[in-house]
Amino acid sequence: MTSHEIDYEIFGEEMQYVEIELDPQEAVVAEAGTFMMMDNGIAMDTIFGDGSKQNQGVMGKLFSAGKRLLTGESLFMTVFLNNDYGKKKVSFASPYPGKIIPIDLTNYRGKFICQKDAFLCAAKGVTIGVEFSKKLGRGFFGGEGFIMQKLEGDGMAFVHAGGTLARKELAPGEILKVDTGCIVGFTQDVDYDIEFIGGIKNSIFGGEGLFFATLRGPGIVYMQSLPFSRLAGRVLAAAPQVGGKQKGEGSILGGLGNLLDGDNEF
């Protein structure tokens, strides 16, 4: 194996974290901000890219980091290396409510495609790159679901899904239409494209995006019920207005009550 072989255990129900056990000189790479806790004896270091090309000189490191820049992620990742003599543990937490999905790349012929912000951590040696599309329209119209990452190698990787996780196994030729943000990931045999919803009423009054993803089997697809974009949108909608004024939700008067509360100037 080119990737480090790691053991793991996932804890929790709605706010999960994954605990990874490292043998001496084993390492795991993770996105910035996912670290939770670790045993004494584990060394933490910041590296360019995913660490899979650290032995290929400066250009290899820059190429690895450059791929991450295309997905909007940080140029750097954090590697956790067990420098001690015994087994040590390090844990990484979910960024928001949902499920952590363990992906053994050996079960998927060395490649798994996932949403650009779904990756959590992986055994060192796993390559985290960009899944380029041959269809230019996906780039212009794919929205939040277009920029996909590919996880390649023969080690363990962990991705995160928001809300409730759905797993569907598509038969050859079977088609599934999904909101682009609800895609977590899929196997490399799944053919995907971006399709226009159509209809002026759907576009203006439907309340959904103008495009959705069309996935064609065979293969396995993972979906999430709560994309982070939806969660963030609801939080922003419920946040206080500029100046600390509440929107008045739950009140009969609502916004009118803010005008009549005596604090407004005319």
Automatic annotation (TrEMBL):
InterPro entries: AIM24 (IPR002838), AIM24_sf (IPR036983), Trp_RNA-bd_attenuator-like_dom (IPR016031). NCBIfam families: TIGR00266 family protein. This is TIGR00266 family protein.
